[in-house]
Design brief:
The complex is a heterodimer of chains A (376) and B (188). By secondary structure, chain A is of the alpha+beta class. Chain A is 44% helix and 21% strand. Chain A is flat. In chain A, α2 packs across α3. The longest helix of chain A has 40 residues. Chain B is mostly helical and 188 residues long. Chain B folds into 2 domains: 104 residues, Rna Polymerase Sigma Factor, Chain: A; 79 residues, Arc Repressor Mutant, subunit A (Orthogonal Bundle), CATH 1.10.10. Helices cover 76% and strands 0% of the residues of chain B. The N and C termini of chain B lie far apart (48 Å). The relative contact order of chain B is 0.08. The mean pLDDT of chain B is 81. Classes of the chains: A alpha+beta (376), B mainly alpha (188).
């Protein structure tokens, strides 16, 4: 509390608010107490700094206003304005270049006309010839323009064909399911029954774009298939945000899924209901989740964003009974595929970047890695 | 003589932040500086920065009470701008300016002073920004807008001016600490 009083006194002293008596008194204190003296010096300096700061700040804002004001009035050549000022600025900026360009063009034109003049058969000069000549030139011009236009049209057509050819997606895809990336280079996992008997396979990303894909691995018994996106429009992702878990989850563990039962990605959540599948099948487990046709192949993830299975079957006789293939078979399938030398680079994602994030965040991230699988 | 007296009144106007004077100086000098910067690999945005900084140098000079330029305003502003732009180019590892102009007037003192002040300005800016609200507004109200403690207590919602004073003291101590700590770093 003492300090605050001293400071107040110092401030009053600096600003000259002290009465003459008080002032004399304070000056004596300054002399006898070096700390107070130091405080006066320091505070004076500090206040000066603050005032200067404010002053310069104000001055800067005046400068800015002035700049805008003068620029609008066209009194300075401030560019990045609209309309005329910009044209003038650009003109000034490029006038040298355009002058050079113009003179080159002029010289060329003169040379050519000189050539035409000297090489053309010597005819008697008359007006109609001259007119003919200029008309001819105009005709030639026109023809050149036409040819150019035709070229453009052709180019456009070629481009169009180019665009269409790699993705001949006039194929009416009928059935479909869901698949999700398990390797950044464009490998997806889905159910074997989704792609069985397919002639063409395509996957559709969240952005609605169809990408060509081919089936590189199928295991009908386990109902698992691996696809590879072959489309050159596919841009490999940097990494897969979720991991594939080796062990499956516990009873009642909460899970969620993302899939394409319709033309849009759909989220669903539920829990692990039983550790086995239909008739004690140990390949899969029973889960309770809202699932429809098209959900086949959807990833089943736990709260840490680890894939624990693939949604594969639904039993119609039992309400709400859905079965998921255990995730360890994804790893097995990928290991199997690795044995083929052309796919030896495939890697199982082992780290989840989704741990600890809230569900909305997780789903947002994952949705970029889940694709609709279309077959025909 | 006439020219000199009009220049002098412009500078006096500038010292008082008179808008008219600022506008006149701005109008008469900006294009030249812009041409300098733009012709030496700068953009018009750079030109604006450089010119405005030169204006601040001039402003600082007249603030200190000296209206005696040893040259015309035009020459001064151009020379300062040129020096500032050269310095910035040097930062980007490009060294030369081709404008057929040599440093004809001596502005070393002004440049040195400006650099010091510029550093101080940045320090105060950092300190102020690091302070946070309501401290910043409170100190600005008291020290810059020169409002009384009563008024401040009213507008900031303190129950009495004594409380406001206490708060102001705490804020001031923090600001000083922020400011002077940089000062130490700077001088090391």
């Amino acid at each position: 509390m003492e300090d605050i009083k001293i400071l107040e006194a110092v401030e009053r002293y600096i600003s000259g608010q002290m009465s003459p008596d008080e002032r004399v008194h304070f000056e004596q204190l300054r002399k006898s107490n070096p700390e107070v003296d130091q405080m006066v010096v320091e505070h004076t300096y500090f206040l000066q700094q603050m005032n200067r700061f404010d002053d310069v700040k104000k001055f800067k804002s005046i400068l800015n206003d002035t700049h805008i004001h003068l620029g609008e009035k066209g009194l300075i050549k401030a560019p990045r304005l609209k309309g005329k000022a910009k044209v003038i600025y650009l003109y000034n900026r490029y006038k040298r270049v355009s002058a050079i360009a113009a003179s080159i063009a002029g010289i060329t034109a003169l040379t050519i006309s000189a050539l035409v003049w000297s090489l053309s058969p010597a005819k008697q000069f008359n007006r109609s010839d001259l007119e003919n000549l200029s008309r001819d030139i105009r005709n030639v011009d026109k023809k050149v323009n036409q040819v150019q236009k035709q070229n453009q049209v052709l180019n456009q057509k070629i481009d169009g064909v180019k665009e269409q050819s790699p993705s001949e997606f006039d194929i009416p895809y009928t059935t479909g399911g869901t698949g999700f990336l398990v390797d950044a280079k464009g490998y997806l996992v889905t159910n074997a029954h989704v792609v069985s008997g397919a002639e063409h396979v395509a996957v559709q990303s969240g952005s609605g774009r169809d990408l060509h894909a081919k089936v590189v691995y199928v295991d009908m018994a386990k109902d698992i298939a691996i696809l590879k996106i072959t489309d050159k429009n596919y841009k490999p992702v940097s990494s897969i945000p979720y991991s594939i878990k080796r062990s499956s989850g516990d009873l009642a563990e909460s899970i969620f899924t993302l899939g394409f039962p319709r033309n849009d990605i759909v989220y669903g959540d539920g829990y692990i209901a039983a550790k086995t599948g239909v008739d004690g099948d140990t390949l899969s487990c029973q889960i309770t989740i809202a699932a429809n046709k098209g959900n086949s192949g959807s990833p089943i993830l736990n709260k840490n964003g680890e894939v624990i299975g693939i949604l594969s079957k639904k039993e119609n006789s039992v309400e709400g009974a859905v079965f998921a293939l255990r995730s360890k078979y994804i790893i097995e399938a990928m290991n199997e595929l690795q044995k083929d030398s052309s796919y030896k680079n495939i890697k199982v994602p082992t780290t989840s970047a989704l741990k600890g994030k809230d569900r909305t965040q997780q789903v947002k991230t994952i949705s970029d890695y889940v694709f609709m699988v279309k077959v025909d | 003589m006439k020219v000199e007296s009009s220049e002098r009144s412009l500078l006096q106007g500038l010292a008082k932040s008179d808008k008219k004077a600022i506008e006149t100086i701005y109008k008469e000098n900006y294009n030249l500086v812009q041409a300098l910067v733009v012709n030496n690999s700068g953009t018009s945005e750079d030109a604006k920065d450089i010119f405005q900084e030169a204006m601040i140098v001039l402003y600082e000079k007249v603030q200190s009470g000296s209206f005696e330029l040893n040259c015309q305003i035009k020459t001064f502003v151009y020379s300062v701008s040129r020096r500032l732009w050269l310095k910035r180019l040097m930062h980007q590892n490009r060294f030369s300016i081709s404008d057929g102009h040599e440093d004809s007037v001596s502005i070393d003192e002004e440049m040195e002073e400006h650099e010091k002040r510029n550093a101080e300005f940045t320090m105060m800016e950092k300190a102020m920004n690091g302070l946070g609200e309501p401290c910043k507004s409170l100190l600005e109200a008291f020290y810059l807008q020169k409002k009384s403690m009563q008024e401040i207590a009213g507008s900031f919602g303190y129950t009495n001016s004594e409380n406001a004073k206490n708060q102001k003291y705490k804020c001031l101590m923090r600001l000083k600490k922020l400011f002077f700590s940089q000062y130490k770093n700077e001088s090391l």
